[in-house]
Each structure stands twice: as C-alpha cells, then as structure tokens.
Amino acid sequence: MRPARPADVEAIAELRAVVMRPDLERLGRYDERRVRQRLREGFSPRHTSIITSAGAFAGSVTLRPSENGHWLEHFYLTPALQGRGLGSAVLRTLLTTTDASGDLVRLNVLQGSPARHLYERHGFAVETQDPIDVFMLRRPPTHLADPGSAQAAAMTEESR
Fold first, then answer.
1. Most exposed: 27, 86, 151, 158, by fewest CB within 10 Å?
2. Model-level pTM?
3. Ordered DSSP codes for 41-109
4. pLDDT of the chain along its 160 residues, tens only?
5. Is 138 exposed, middle or buried (0-12, 13-18, 19+ CB in 10 A)?
C-alpha cells in the first residue's frame, strides 16, 4: 500500500463504478454518473491508501478518523484480484493499527454484498441496517484494548 494522491481520484472512481455496479443494479440504485461523483465528493487522499499488486494499481481503502474511532470506506479491489486473500491482508494491516490504539471501526456495506462475509470474518458485526445498507462495527479485542488484562494473561501464562 502507498499513500493516495489527489491524482488517484479518477482511477478509484472508475474502480468503484465497476465493483459496486452488480450490487447497486440488484438494489435498483445504479446511476453511472452518481456512483463516480459520490467518490469524487468524498475523496480524502490524506486518509486513503492505494493498494498495489505486482506494482500495478489494485484498489483503494480509506480509514477515516471519527469522533469515536474510524470509518472504513472506499475499500475496492480490482475484480480479478478478489477472493485471493489480498482484501484480508489489507484488513489485517489496518485492523492491527486500530486494535493497538483500542479504536472502534465502523463501515457500511450494501445489502446482499459478498463483501459482508469478508468483514464478518474479521470481527465486524451488524450494528444497524436498512433496506439498502448494513452498518457494521468492530470492537478491538479486549485483550488488546485493556493493557491490564494483557498483563494478567501474561502473568497467568508464566505461572504455568
């Protein structure tokens, strides 16, 4: 991963349109212009990383700070690279950082999206949902969020 630059916005907007099209069409919400424009309007290079594979653009992910944690947004992978473990590797990298700081991570995924299974495997649970979106939350593991419990666990392990 590398930090995003303002010039990356169009590549991400195009990938977003490709990746989200099947789910948006299924939900009757696909609009070719709007799908790209929403990305452009919310693009934050400061909080976005570009995912590369074999030196080429493979996707993006945004981890935007919020008042009580982070929002995971604009996580898109080129379709040819989906299902090969790259998304899991990216998530593990990001969640290691948020876990270490004890931060909550929220995201939303479209109803029926296969991406929901990826997020569930990484500890996200449904917080709320509506007919279009599923809002998910991931709390840091308690042994990482509470330094005292990590010490207690280590002491217990040493006493064996």
1. 158
2. 0.85
3. HH--GGGEEEEEETTEEEEEEEEEEETTEEEEEEEEE-GGGTTSSHHHHHHHHHHHHHHHTT--EEEEE
4. 999 999 999 999 999 999 999 999 999 999 999 999 999 999 999 999 999 999 999 999 999 999 989 999 999 999 999 999 999 999 999 999 999 999 999 999 999 999 999 999 999 999 999 999 999 999 998 865 445 444 433 333 333 3
5. buried
